Every structure is written in structure tokens, then in C-alpha cells.
């Protein structure tokens, strides 16, 4: 009887111990989950890595300075070439204005009957050359007179416009600003700019009139 009781007592004790272990296991697991995992300490930068970054910055700065220096060296010749190209283009445009005026505008201004197709072509060429001089000439031309140049597209004034255009081209080409450097350079440039504006406006107005009359003449035939 006593042996039976002692066995029963042992079994109960074992059951209580097992129950206690079972209840304690989830708590220990949750505690392990809640506890953060410590991160490994960051390694301080070594003197070699700091020196490498400094060397890289020095190399980048040197490369940037070298690039700026090389761009300056290449920019000066490029500007000089562009200046020579514009000067050559200006000389060509001035020569073409002189040639068109002598070979087409002056003969048309003294003709008994106007060839509208020829006049439209000549005025278009003059307008193109004069416009290029205005916007791309290496000599900056600024009209300081303040006078607005305007012409009405009146076909009855076409003969008068031909004489005005011829005189404006001759005066513009004879301006000393294209050949010498004078103390009154600003005044000469202003006069040249005013004459150039007159050439552009006159040739544009004459071109419109000539094209319109040429179409009317063709339609009437």
C-alpha cells in the first residue's frame, strides 16, 4: 500500500513538473522574440580609407581644373575662327549688294517697262543679304536716330522706290565704318544701321509689290 502511494506521488510530481515546463516554454520564447538582437559595432574608418577618399577628391578636383583650362584654350581659337568667318561673310555680302545694285537695280530704275519677275528676284536677294548683315555682322550696327523706317506697298511708287533703294545701297556701302576706325565710330555705325534698315524695308516692300504685279500680269494673259 505504501509503495503504491509513493508511486502515485512520484507520478503527480512528474506531471506537475511537466505542466510547469510546458507553461514556461511559450513565455521564454516570447521573451526571446521581444529581445532585440544587438548589431555588431561599426568599425571606425581606418586611416588608409580616409586617405583614399582625400586622394579621390584631389584627383576629381584636378580633373575639373584641367577640363576648365582645356576648354579655355580651345574656346579662344574657336572664337577667332568664328570672327574671321563672319568677317569673310560680311565682305562677301557687301560685294554682292554692290553687284546686285549695279547689275539689276540701277538698270531697272532707268527701264521704260519693269520686269516684275526680275525685280522680285533682285529685291529678294538684296533683302536676304541685308538681313544677314544686320543679324550676323561682326560690326555691331545700332540705329540711334530713333526714326522708324516705313514704306507703303503702293505700286505707283515703285519707280521712286527703285531710286531710293539704289541710293541707300550706295550710301551704305560707302560708309567709312567698314574700312577705317574713326573717333566718331558710334555715329558712323548709327548711320550705317539706319541705311541698312531702309534697304531691308525697301527691298521687302518692293518684293511684295513685284510678286503681286507679276501674278496679276500672268493671270491677265
Summarize the amount of helix as a percent range: over 70%
Task: Spell out the helices and strands N to C.
Answer: HHHHH
Total helical segments: 5
The Cα radius of gyration reads 47 Å
Strand content: under 5%
Structural class: mainly alpha
Envelope shape: elongated
Task: Pick out the low-confidence regions.
Answer: 1-6, 12-37
| Straight-line distance between termini | 148 Å
Mean pLDDT: 77
Question: Topology of this structure?
Answer:
Elements: H1 2-34, H2 47-109, H3 116-136, H4 158-173, H5 185-220
Helix pairs in contact: 2-3, 2-4, 3-5, 4-5
Précis, in short:
The chain is mostly helical and 221 residues long. Helices cover 76% and strands 0% of the residues. The longest helix is centred in the middle third of the chain and has 63 residues, at 47-109.
